[in-house]
Amino acid sequence: MPGITLLGLGPGDPSLLTRAAWDILSSVDEIWLRTKQHPAVAGLPSSVRVHSFDDLYENGEDFAAVYSAIVEKVLELGRRPQGVIYAVPGDPFVAEATGPEIARRARTLNLPLKIVSGLSFLEPVFAALGLDPYPRLVLMDALELGDAHVPSFPPDMPVLIAQIYSRLVASEVKSTLTAVYPDEHPVRLVHAAGTKDELVEDIPLFEIDRSEHIGLLTALHLPPLGEGTSFEAFQEIVAHLRAPDGCPWDREQTHASLRTHLMEEAYEALEAMDTGDPHKMAEEFGDLLLQIVLNAQIGSEEGEFAMADVLKGIHGKIVRRHPHVFGDLQLDGVQGVLKNWEKLKAAERAENGGEKGLLDGVPLSLPALAQAQEYQDRAARVGFDWPEISGVLDKIAEEIQEVRDATNEAELTAELGDLFFALVNLSRWKKVDAESALRETNLRFKRRFAHVEQGARKRGKKLQEMTLDEMEALWQEAKRQ
């Protein structure tokens, strides 16, 4: 049989071999297996001589190197006059890295190619779980998932994760999943589906790497986390708000009309961050996300941009601006990162319109303290900064004296602005966010002054009727509390 025959051995039990596969196996005297570690191998015709690539697994650097070596060897064998029968567990095109690549290369090289499909591991797994994969099911590879930091699929969808062949792989998969799913999330491990040793375990997620039954034929079924837990579901509900049968108010909104709401939600998110309340932060981040998704939906309806453009744009920007993470660039600490960051942004500015200044990208709508600190940060990254903090402190003293010396309102306004700017610079040198520091001070003042007001009411007085000493006493009491 010249060329290459890709043959599926089925999920495990030899009785599940297809008639076509059995006829071929019964008529040849030699086959090559990706691995002998498969139950169907024991049921092959006794007349066939079996070779395998198991030695490559033992000596290969990684799976990619092993699969590459297998592909090259199968192509070489396929050039022989008698060709080659290459058999793999399950189906040659389901959860099988070598089959599709061999087929692609064979077609490129004009090698005769025959594909003998097999029952994949999926059908017996579905049967063991009593599961119909429709209307939706995500299929994931355990090795890819284990290398990730967060799951790459919507958590409101059911998922089947294949190739959990060891406790180490199970542990890596668990680590990724618990970034989103709770430890106690109920899951099902399916072992040896399609064989006499088939077993289904119902356990919590945190126990998957403790199972004694994990082996080469183990898969994990992950039920959905629940309604409304995915970004895609959130996009759908926002799109529904804008639909003809949605909300009249939401349908009327434009980018311009939402501007104030976006600003308000941003400040409310900052306020939640200042309080340190995680539940409040989660709520306010949700409100802020609504504004972003709503604007993206409007952009999509107007043909301006889609959410995919927003995500792709920021994805590309992050990768581009972090060559020390996603590339080979070596940088020395935070300062090295910041200096390279400015080089990259300067190149971007040149590409996007030429000679824009270093500070032109700072939004004019930023709060004044935040804007000042960003200006100073950017200038410092290119070396425009005091060499020592003593210069900063001297500048503050100088500005205080100039405030004292101001002779009119215009001079006083300018000198106070300079003093604020110098104080922001001190914050930057001390690695304190000036905007957050002042907001925290404002909050403290508000709480303490509320205590003074409450104290006045307890005394049956109005604030205007209290002396400064009485108010100061209540103020100090608030500070002690």
How would you explain this protein's 3D organization?
The chain is built from 19 helices and ten strands. With 481 residues, the chain is an alpha/beta fold. The chain has four domains: 4-119, Cobalt-precorrin-4 Transmethylase, domain 1, CATH 3.40.1010; 123-222, Methyltransferase, Cobalt-precorrin-4 Transmethylase, Domain 2 (2-Layer Sandwich), CATH 3.30.950; 231-321, Helix Hairpins, CATH 1.10.287.1080; 435-480. It has a five-stranded parallel beta sheet with strand order 3-2-4-1-5, with helices on both faces. A hairpin with a 7-residue loop joins strand 8 and strand 9. Helix 8 crosses helix 11, helix 10 packs antiparallel against helix 11 (278-301) and helix 16 (389-405) packs antiparallel against helix 17 (409-429). The longest helix has 25 residues, at 434-458. The mean pLDDT is 91.
Protein topology:
Elements: E1 4-8, H1 19-27, E2 30-33, E3 49-52, H2 54-59, H3 63-78, E4 84-88, H4 98-108, E5 113-116, H5 122-129, E6 138-141, H6 142-146, E7 159-162, H7 167-177, E8 186-191, E9 199-204, E10 218-222, H8 231-242, H9 248-252, H10 255-275, H11 278-301, H12 307-321, H13 323-326, H14 333-351, H15 368-381, H16 389-405, H17 409-429, H18 434-458, H19 468-480
Parallel strand pairs: 1-4, 1-5, 2-3, 2-4, 6-7
Antiparallel strand pairs: 7-10, 8-9, 8-10
Helix pairs in contact: 3-4, 8-11, 10-11, 15-17, 16-17, 18-19
